[in-house]
## 1
Amino acid sequence: MRGVERIAACSHEAAALGVVCGQPTAEVTGLNIPGMAVFAHDAEADREALAQWAERCERFSPLVGVDDAPEPDSLLLDVTGTARLFHGKAAQGERSPAHRSWFRDGEAALVEEAVDLFARRRLRVRAAVADTPAGACAVAHFHAAFLVQRSPVLLIPPGETPAALRRLPIESLRLPERTTNLLHELGIDLLGQLAALRREELSSRFGPELLRRWDRATGVRPEPIGAVRPRPEFAAAWEPEPPARRRETIEAALEGVLARLAGDLLAAGRGAIRIECRFDCLPDDRRGDRAGVRLGGNGSAPEPQAETSAGLSFRRFTLGLFRPTVDVRHLLGLLQLKLEQEPLAGPVAGMEVSALETGPLVQRQMALFAGVPGGRHDPPGGDAVAELLERLSSRLGRQTVVSVVLLPDAQPERAWRGEPLIGGPRRKRAGKARAVELPPRPLLVFPRPVALRAMPAVHVHGGGSTSSGEPPARPLGCVHFDGEEHRVVGSWGPERIETGWWRGRPIARDYYHVETAAGRRLWLFGRLDTGRWFAHGTFD
Amino acid sequence: MNHLAAKTLRIEQLQAQIARIEDAPSRGNITPLSSGCPPLDALMPHGGFLPGTLVEWLAEGAGTGPATLAALAARQAVSNGRALVVVDRRGRFYPPAAVRLGIDPQRLILVRAATQADQFWAVDQSLRCRGVGAVLAWPRRLDAHTFRRWQLAAEEGGVLGLLIRPAAARKEPSWAEVRLWIEPLPSGAEARRRLRLHLLRCHGPNAGRTLEVEIDDETYSVSPASQLADPTAPRRAARA
């Protein structure tokens, strides 16, 4: 049936009360269960949340990915070799007989810590360790240990993944629905039954996809995990336990993290050009006392818009630097500015600072030479200005703080462009500005020319005359503009500005520099096509 | 030494003392910058504007010329390799005109502040920066607190702050070292525009003086108007 809202997912508690996935929502809400809440399903939000958790899980593995289902619900971690870095409770005496070698202990500890990480955000997960990503994914979704015994963790011993898979239903391979239905019609419900059939037969009857999936699950065919994001080369993190609330604590920790990052960078002879700082915030349970976790920020600061999802929110800041730096105090200052603009939403459970882009660290200019134009990356005015630019750009935005690039374009609006001074592709700046041989230009120009309500009774003959239509003649008379009436008493021009038809919206204007009776100087133009008049700027 | 001579000497000593007090002690060895407007320089006690101070240009309405004069002063202030920060909130500043006026675009930093708070902050930060030569901004409203902060910031950074404000600001208190009111005059259809500058506020004996200048829009050279300023113009108080 179309058009009926159905339950996409439900909690264990709801399932215990008889809620079934796929059931029409109305039936469930009709039950009137106290404390029950129904939310609209948002696949995109789920995907984003999963990607965030993937990043959070990077502490367990350098390679974290998300499964390839149309609506993914699993995180894939490559724990090969990272397990032995973990020593949980299992290694400290509470040794369970199932895990004998130190290697298994490490895996158990890692998984335990991972489950705990989610549990702290009140999220229930199933964690399975197997020889292949697809195998682990299948086990986590369909193994009896999860579905029947409700265990949070299952470790499949090395080499036993194919055996474990045999007891799982064919759905665990995530085949196309058509293939799954066909298999069921033939009485094949478990992967074990599938494994008993001849490979050639499987391929010819069900297509190559089935065998490919099976081989990936069993490890015959290797399957790479597509990392959610490449690991930055330089990064440092901090995870307080319990989550930090006090601004001083967070700032001190941030400084420590930056110092570690800077140390690594310095050792490699590199400086950061772009830095990402990620705060992992818990939901604020003390609503009345938000100021406690606000870094900087005053009472009127806007409510932060964090990327929120099940019990956590990520806050991400990116800093662009004018040139490679390892200056901890400077970076801290810039991040503090960011935090003042967008205060954190709740206690900080973790932070990570990574250098997304680095450059070779050049010897910093001595202050003595500040102001002497030097290398091509030097801003006007030296280091002090570089720091100013970084501060301005961090708080006001990259696009707000620009350098001026003059363009050889006849149309006044297009005769220049602002280019962000921070970040962006580093390009050799144009050399000495070419001398501009233009008639006078006003220092203030309206972003859009202002149409003049009534233009001048104009009589005196115009400047040049063209064959195309009637050019507006020299402006004289009264101009209504800026809420006032100005009488034009003198005019200089015209300066004809035309652009080619190939420009999409070509212009043809006669510009005049006029003086009003009060001595004000305006920049007006008449359109050659319509004869209408506009004010374009003021000689302020 | 007769009585009169002693009195004259004493007055001269006191005048020198006043001049010393009026110049904040930190400004001992600061070289003044030309305002880019020689007739105005002639009236300034130091022969120009002092880096580390604010200058206010007041004018009523559009097209009256304060930006041109301020930009000329800015050009002088950045001629030593320092940067010029233009904080433009209304998106009207037209850089090609500034370049034509002789400002090196490589020294120009344009801050397109979106709000008044951003504008205030950007001006404050830029005034504090030692690598900046001048800051040009158009603050319409300026509360006394912010004004004072800017003045201190300019002093800290040794930056010349050029503020273009509506004429109504005349009634407001000022933390600027120099306050000028610009009045356009009809040029009589001459290409050179004429402006009357009222020196509302400055140190020295010339506060309250008025001068008329002519600006050539081709070369941006400023010269005294052909006719001398009216010596009978009413004197204004040095301090508002």
Note: The mean pLDDT of chain A is 77.
## 2
Amino acid sequence: MGAKLLRRIHFPAVTAYLLVGIIIGPRIFNLIPSRLMAASDFVTNFVLGIIAFALGANFKLKDLKAAGKPVIWISVLEAACAWVVVTVVMVVYHILQKIPIHPAFVLGAAAAATAPAATVMVVREYRASGPVTDMLLRVVAIDDAWCLIFSALAITTASALRVGVFSSTVLIHAVAEVCLALILGGSLAVGLYVITRFIASTDEVLIIAVGFIMLAVGLAVRFKLSPLLTNIAFGLVVANIVRESELFFKALRRVDMVLFLGFFVLVGANLEIGILPQVGVMGALYIIFRVVGKFIGVRIGAHISGAGANISRNLAWGLVPQAGVALGVALSAKTLYPKYGELIFTTITATTVIYELVGPLCAKYGLKKAGEI
Amino acid sequence: MNSLLSAGLILLLGFVGARILKLVRLPSVTAFLVVGILIGPQLLNLVTEEIFTASEFFSNLVLGLIAFSLGENFRLDNLRQGMKQVMWISLSAALLAWVLVSSALVVYFITIDMPIYPAIVLGAAASATAPAATVLVIREYRASGILTELLLKVVAIDDAWCLIFAAMAIAVGNAMRADVFQMSIVFAGLGEIFGALLLGGVLGYLSSKLSRFVRTSEELLVYALGLLFLDVGLSIALEVSVLLSAMMMGLVLVNMRRENYKFFEVLRSVDTPLYLVFFIISGAHLDFSILYKMGIAGILYVAFRMVGKVYGARIGAKISNAPKSVKNWLGLSLTPQAGVALGIGLVAKVTFPDLGNYIFTIIAATSVIFELAGPLLTKYSLVRAGEISPSE
């Protein structure tokens, strides 16, 4: 209903779902019983798993040979630029405010993350297709890996600045986390490959697909790995080794709209809009310079790798959404730094609220400008 | 163990279990229940607390889904001739099960010097059937024919009889226990039925009217599931029968517009994982230790419920001139018993502080038996009636 209404004014459905979530959420109408809210962890993790799995399918080795270089360059550079720009600005701001500068590094690293879910939804809703769309889907899939590594680097640096010791364990942990997630995803794909032979009907395809994704997310959570990366790796390997892989992706596409809707409404209900007034100057700087960083990074990356002007100009719009991954970085900062962790966390949560609402609009705008909607 | 891991294992083990038991020609429903028993709290304990808590929500949804899809079978244009048979058979199968179980237990309770009112309530519970298991067996083996068609209709409406009987039985039981006959209980039972039909009818009507805003099949799925949640939620809130209101909604939808068959189609394309999880969780809930407690009363219940169903259906078929395959095999295919009977058990538990628990135990224990044996018997009768192809 909400989606229908807002479509009249050309809003993407994601934004509508989020707004509906906010309205029926605990702060306003309180239509969601606490039991449903308690289940939201389960639903969001599962849906993120599905999204990541589908993203992995965009990396088929045979079409990647051609497009591989730009993907790597653009994703590294847009993530790195956002990090660097936000960090530099924050350092300056913190010096002016005479507070320690270490939170600046962590904030910058969080700025590197994007939100695959929102981007994918917009692409799907408007049936966008073309080189920019393809590139965008691949970039959002892998920049979370960069973000994890950057945030580990940032946390190491920040800790070093704070207490004056540089410990490389955090960094090693982060690299190990990425690698283990990839290995886990890969091994599950092999498992799926084996079991595919026993599938007789399309109903069973759905059961297996859903079961494996839940297993992947569950195992990732259990071993404290990134569920997103695990499922991207899972989807990637499946797309490349299972001949009937299209069946799985198709079966999931049949049901995922419902799940996405539930997901975004729940995310909306969980958004802490009460936190918005606390954004302050720092949040404003973060919001502006993160986007600036993304744009510069995409430009440079596209230039180096020789991607077309269309990509160079419009891709960055699709990278504006920010959600779970950034919050994850903020959460780990919160537990690490008792004093300024809270500040980091508030800033990231508040900016996430804004990005979640504005991001889908930006993504739509960018794709439209690229002529792919 | 987190809940996602647990849910993933449930799905995959369900698949594997169904594959293995298929080798010995057992229906998937049985396989799911067995897997559920294996991973349940008594053995491997792979089901997390969180999933158990969510299972009430979940099973209401699945029952609503089943009942909704049963509503599709009642198309008014081809219903005229069959309806007489459905009514006679469902009524006499339910009634005879009630009468026989009650009489047998009354005799037994008198000989052991117990109050006899539990016998009346237990008999009413015996009239219930389990649509979910029946539908799944039919779907798995792609059964089709006169018996299948009648069976789908009978399991859809005999819950209405069962609710009426249960309301009467509880009122009578209360009267025998406390010497006051409360008409209000009977009325409450009737209200539960008519309220459900009204609610389902209204929702079905509205949703058919509003369905012109739905464009893609993805949106239709969202819409259909949303409706179902709404219907089940409202039924629970208004304390009317979830099964009947969902069935009524399906019935109204299928008769209002021809294109409404898409509602059922789109749900069918996604519902198998839900059924799988539903039956695995049901299996995990099965409490075997309760079997020891059911005693002679439980054995009598099982035996006379079977006799009642088989001969009740036979009598009903004879009166309404149903074909021979129906007369011979329909009763046996009604063997499954699950949620509806347990619901009556729960009401009894609340209404009768002294023997309510005893009633509940017997219903729960016999449900364990009927849940496991029921799908097999349903399959067997469909095979014997020639409505499942021999290759299956």
Note: The longest helix of chain B spans residues 146-178.
